[in-house]
Every structure is written in C-alpha cells, then in structure tokens.
Amino acid sequence: MSNNIEELFNERLSRYQAAIALVIPDRVPISSGSNYFAEVYGGHSTQEFIYDASKWSLADNKFVYDFPEVDSFRSGRFWGPLQDSVGSNLYKFPGRDLPPHTQFQFVEGERMKSDEYDLLINNPVEFLFERFLPRALNDFGAHGSVRSYMALIKGSTASAMAGALMKARALHLQNELGMPQSMGGVFLDPLITLRMA
C-alpha cells in the first residue's frame, strides 16, 4: 500500500471509528451500502455483478474515485454461483429467474413449520439436516443420500471460493483504494435465520 493510500485509509477509518466511539470526528463520516448503485453506476447489470466477480473491482474503482467523500464501503456480496451450487431456492436472481437489470428477490416459504420448535431446540443438527436444508436447498435432497453429500461438497467448495473472492475484494478496497469496509461479516441467530428463510 502506498503512503498516500495508507494515509487515506487511516483517515477514513479513524473518522468512522470515532463516530462509532461517540467521539466527534473532523466531519460526519459517510458509509455507503450502495445497494447496487455502485455496480449500476459503473455500467454493469445486476446479473453481471452477481455472477461475475471480476466486475466487483471495476465497479468499486469507479465509485470510490467518483465519490471520494465516502469513508467506508459495505463488504457483503451475493455470488450467484454459490447459491446455484446447492440449488438454493431462497432467492430469485437476475439473469437466472429475473431480467438481467433487476434486483434479486427473496422467496418466502415455510422452511420451518410451527410444530418444529421443540425439534430445533432439542436437536438443532438433526433439524438442520433433516428439515431445513432439504427445504431451502433443492440439491440437498434427503439427508444421507448421495445427492445430499454432493450438495455438501459443492456448497463447501463454492463457499471457500466465495470467501477467497471476498478477501481479494477487501484487500483491493484497502490496499488500492484506501477504503475501509464498514462490516466484516454477519452472524444471525438460528431463529432469525429460520424466520428469514
């Protein structure tokens, strides 16, 4: 990281951290979630962005250079191949289920039934593998089947690939653009996850 980029990164990060610590920063920090504005502004369809990770840095570069007043950027990204690798039925994606320039959509469904709370509480692993995953991931099938094992292998491999892509993006934002990320990850408790699903 060059000295100028490092200084810019530290300036933005300090401003953002000061606000979190309730200390008055030199100015109000701006943290952007973009909600695909950066990607569309960079000239990409939502389909391209969800399915082609090489577009991420192109969109990030244009956004950061054109909006230098932004102090931090969100980290999360949907990567369609990860969802496709296990036949996820939780979302509809542009280019797959929707027109290429539309936003992805959450698909509601009863993936946990009202009489299953005791099963979840008493044996969450069994609930996950026997009930939730077969309902949320089409390729998971019945627990213990060859299909379910293949889905676990494919999903694990795609998850590792997605993690590597996210890491590369984070390093690009930090080392090339001087841009901190406002969020490094998300953790949801099981009931929130099940309600969302």
* Beta-strand content estimate: under 5%
| Helical run tally | 9
With strands numbered from the N-terminus, the spatial order across the biggest sheet is 1-2
Shape verdict: elongated
Category by helix and strand content: mainly alpha
| Amino-to-carboxy terminus distance | 41 Å
List keywords for this structure.
two-stranded antiparallel ribbon, mainly alpha, 197 residues, two-stranded parallel ribbon, 54% helix, elongated
Structure description:
This protein is mainly alpha-helical and 197 residues long. It has one domain. Helix content is 54%, strand content 4%. The strands form two sheets. A two-stranded parallel sheet has the order 1-2. The chain has a two-stranded antiparallel sheet with strand order 3-4.
Blueprint (SSEs and pairs):
Elements: H1 3-20, E1 31-32, H2 37-41, H3 46-51, H4 54-66, E2 72-73, H5 80-85, E3 91-92, E4 105-106, H6 117-122, H7 124-136, H8 146-177, H9 190-196
Parallel strand pairs: 1-2
Antiparallel strand pairs: 3-4
Helix pairs in contact: 1-8, 4-8
Describe this structure in a few short sentences.
By secondary structure, the chain is mainly alpha-helical.
